[in-house]
Amino acid sequence: MKTASISTTGVASYMEDLGQAARADAPAMARATTGAKNAALLAMARFIRERAPSLKAANEGDLKAAQAAGLEASLMDRLTLTDERIEQMARGLQEIAALPDPVGEISGLAMRPSGIQVGRMRVPLGVIGIIYESRPNVTADAAGLCLKSGNAVILRGGSEAALSNAAIGQCLRDGLAHAGLPPGALGLVATTDRAAVTELLHMDRFIDLLIPRGGKGLVELVSNEARMPVLKHLHGICHVYIDADADAKKALAVAVNAKTQRYGTCNTMETLLIAQSQAANLLPRLAKAYGEHGVELRVCAKTRQWIPDAALASEKDWETEYLAPILSIRVVAGLDEAISHIARYGSHHTDAIVTENWTAAQRFLREVDSSSVMVNASTRFADGFEYGLGAEIGISTDKLHARGPVGLEGLTSQKFIVWGDGHIRA
Fold first, then answer.
1. DSSP-based three-state secondary structure for 274
2. Which of 76, 87, 143, 153 is deepest in the core (most CB within 10 A)?
3. Among 320, 299, 321, 318, which Cα is nearest to 308's?
4. What is the pLDDT of residue 7?
């Protein structure tokens, strides 16, 4: 598959064809057996390994163009396909093949007084569109999850990875063909024209769900312009609250890990809340630990009583996702104030409480309105693999359909099924 140069006037027609092909092949994916889907995924993994030299050659073309365009170092790193990353792609497809297939699963089947049996069956969504940036490995990861869950998929990667994505996409389509499944079920937008994104956002007659994977600007664009449902999260402003009844050792371990285990992830803590009764004991020790990791602290006026050298936090700090070694700290009176702070400034992503008080833990779990709420655990656990999903397509902070890390089940829906034996309603 080669990247295409398509005139702007032809983009709409090109995208229409791509959408029609995906919609036409979606029924074949929905009825595909688990064996056929797994065979396709394993073939994809094999082709990726066998064609590693050509994948690296395509990637080298992207890297040269990106370097000439002045792409920043961090994005260059994300764009690069190393031998290890190629192997990770192949291994990821094998891991998806090993996951239980949710399609066709029947739950809650029960006999009704009328004699009919009513239950629910898990079914694919249909056609999923995914818009993503920089990392070419997303092409394999996202396609694998969508196809295993019985969906057709249309992928639109970043223009900086066009050659890499095309080479990976060909491996994936060949894998589908090898297993007797329609290659058209995987559509890869081959034009780098930005008009293709606009067209994709308006293709609600073909696409059932759109998933943006990238920075805040991309997610906001998709959320504002898409005509179909969007699975997304805009920010990861995650909190850890150290309660009055917290164990000091657990509090130190969780608060340090939640911030320093990795800085640039959406489940990294950005604000630490601490009950006033714990401040004198824990804040100096926390400041020392964060200092050893090179974390800059921005704190409330009360916190400066124990960390006098820290910068005073502004209102903007409480609503900022740093994705960097920067942490906001606020001393609160107790649980009520902590919950109120999270409600005002949080992003409904992941929030944690450290406490030995069962009642406080239960209140936090019930009242904090986030997709993941934790007790005595680091926010860094908010991840599909850690949750036992095997893999994830992303994290959703929406309340409908899927919430939190989204794996195979989140890419399906349920429909009611009824079994009868000639039953009629009286």
1. strand
2. 143
3. 299
4. 52
Residue 334 corresponds to which tokens in the numbers above? 């107790």
Q: Specify the pairing of strand 186-188 against strand 311-312.
A: unpaired
Is the pLDDT reported for residue 121 higher than 90?
Answer: yes
Residues 368 and 255 sit within 8 Å (Cβ to Cβ)? no
Q: Angle 137-148/162-178 helices, nearest 10 degrees? A: 30
CA distance linking residue 381 with residue 387, whole number of Å: 8
Which residue in the block uniquely carries the two structure tokens 């066998």?
50
Q: What pLDDT shows up at residue 42?
A: 98
Other CB atoms within 10 Å distance of the CB of residue 38: 20
Q: Which two tokens stand for residue 171?
A: 């491996």
Tokens representing 356 are: 């030995």
Residue 213 has pLDDT above 70, yes or no: yes
Encode 280-329 in three state secondary structure. HHHHHHHHHHHHHCCCEEEECCCHHHCCCCCEECCHHHHHCCCCCCEEEE
The tokens for 296 are 């800059």
Measured CA distances, 367 to 120, 144, 171, 188, 339 (Å) = 30, 36, 47, 42, 7
Q: Is the pLDDT of residue 261 over 80?
A: yes
Q: What is the mean pLDDT of residues 274-296?
A: 98
Judge whether residue 4 has pLDDT over 50: no
* Residue 68 to residue 48: CA distance in whole angstroms: 27
Q: How many residues does the chain have?
A: 426
Per-residue pLDDT, 2: 45
What 8-state DSSP symbol labels residue 70?
Answer: T
Per-residue pLDDT tens over the stretch 148-202: 999 999 999 999 999 999 999 999 999 999 999 999 999 999 999 999 999 999 9
Report the distance separating Cα 286 and Cα 265, nearest Å.
Answer: 21
Confidence of residue 134 (pLDDT cuts 50, 70, 90): confident
* Residue among 379, 371, 413 nearest 233 (CA): 371
pLDDT given for residue 285 in this prediction: 98
d(CA 315, CA 319): 7
Residue in 250, 257, 239 with CA at minimum distance from that of residue 357: 250
- Residue 419: pLDDT band (50, 70, 90) is very high
Residue 414 to residue 422: CA distance in whole angstroms:
24
**Which helix (H) or strand (E) element contains residue 93?**
helix 83-98
Task: Tell me the C-alpha distance between 118 and 98, whole Å.
Answer: 30
Q: In whole angstroms, give the CA distance from residue 229 to residue 51.
A: 36
